[in-house]
Amino acid sequence: MFRIRVVLSFVAIGILVMSSPAAAHSSVVQDPTGDTADTTPPYYDIVKAKIHRTGDESGTHRAIVFSMKLAVPIPQLASSTFFAANWLLDTNPARVGPEYNVIVRWCTTATHPRCQAGDAHWEGALNDFASGTQTYVSMTDIDGDAVTLWLDPERIGSPDQFDWQGATRSRGAQPIPEDNTEVASFDR
Predict the structure, then answer these.
(1) How far is CA 116 from CA 35, 122, 136, 159, 175, in A?
(2) Residue 188 confidence class, pLDDT cut points 50, 70, 90
(3) Sheet with 140-143, edge to edge strand ranges
(4) pLDDT, tens digit, for every residue of 93-120?
(5) Given a cut of 80, is residue 20 above it in pLDDT?
(6) 112/86 Cα distance (integer angstroms)
(7) Rounded to an integer, what distance in angstroms lies between the CA atom of residue 111 and that of residue 129?
(8) Which of 30, 97, 116, 178 makes a 20 to 30 Å CA pair with 165?
(9) CA-CA distance, 58 to 86, in Å (whole number)?
(10) What is the pLDDT of residue 151?
(11) Which helix (H) or strand (E) holds 11?
């Protein structure tokens, strides 16, 4: 009888934790390894792309986290190399195409004119296609084969749901990515 109560207690706690508003929502897309062109370096090959939220019902530490795992670690990149991990967000189904592009990129103004000035560096950016503006995002992390960016949801209009797609690019404003994921939906 004691065992049943213990097991039921753990089940009840698990259900409460999973149903709690503080539980993070996420959307994950697995992407096949090796689906890039033979001439594309393997660090442009997406293995997994993910979007999840952080914070609790009070909004404390609230962020949307964009992450991407690549087939191999990103090597030390030359200043002439452009690399971008992108998450294209369709927050308004009434409009055609994505409204936002969340970006983590290695660049200089020589490799991409909208890159911040200075030597080659990593930076985060948010392109708002509807308004034509680009703003910078300071919270990024590049660690081997993982790329991550944290974004305040208000910067994309705090939508409750949106469709998204991950992509990597080797040139700024590249129309066809080196790799891209299937379209997925994210619910906050």
Answers:
(1) 31, 10, 9, 28, 21
(2) confident
(3) 26-30, 46-54, 63-70, 146-151, 140-143
(4) 999 999 999 999 999 999 999 999 999 9
(5) no
(6) 15
(7) 21
(8) 116
(9) 29
(10) 96
(11) helix 2-19
Q: What CA–CA distance (Å, rounded) separates 133 from 113?
A: 14
DSSP state of 17: H
SS3 string, 93-122, reads: CCCCCCCEEEEEEEECCCCCCCCCCCCCEE
Closest listed residue to residue 181, CA positions, set 169, 167, 170: 167
Cα separation, 165 vs 87, whole angstroms: 6
Distance of CA 177 to the CA centre of its chain: 15
**Max Cα–Cα distance, the chain, nearest Å:** 71
pLDDT at 37 over 90: yes
Instruction: Report pTM.
Output: 0.85
Q: What would the mean pLDDT of 26-32 be, rounded to a whole number?
A: 96
